[in-house]
Write a structure and sequence with these properties.
Lipocalin, mainly beta, 1 helix, 122 residues
Length: 122
């Protein structure tokens, strides 16, 4: 959790500008003992994969982010992931086949579902 708190402080500084309705920080699961934190601001998304057991970042990827027909479209390196708001209007749920991995986990290192993440002090 300390990793997530530290990442939140960094993202708070980076996300202080104007942006879209999807802007913010999100957390999701990408596999056994792996999680991901996404900081989304305007046309850019930064996704960090974290080894939860070791509390360390194992990969970082940058995506172009755009809104199309009310959906969030993330693309990089020939891969595209499309997310829409969940019924609760907070979650981001994957709508594209590119997220359909094994046993509820997303493929390509991306979660099927992102949950909004806010620091405990906010």
């Amino acid at each position: 959790m300390k990793v997530f708190k530290a990442l939140w402080l960094v993202s708070a500084v980076l996300l202080s500008g104007c942006g879209s309705e999807f802007d913010g920080s999100y957390m999701g699961s990408t596999g056994f003992m792996l999680g991901a934190v996404m900081q989304l601001s305007g046309g850019q998304a930064r996704v960090e994969t974290i080894n939860v057991m070791r509390r360390e970042v194992v990969a970082t990827r940058e995506f172009e982010a755009e809104i199309r027909s009310g959906k969030l479209v993330l693309s990089a390196g020939g891969k595209t992931f499309i997310y829409g708001r969940g019924v609760d209007e907070g979650l981001l749920e994957c709508l594209s086949d590119s997220c359909q991995g094994f046993s509820g986990l997303g493929s390509g290192g991306m979660p099927r579902t992102w949950k909004p993440y806010k620091s405990e002090g906010k």
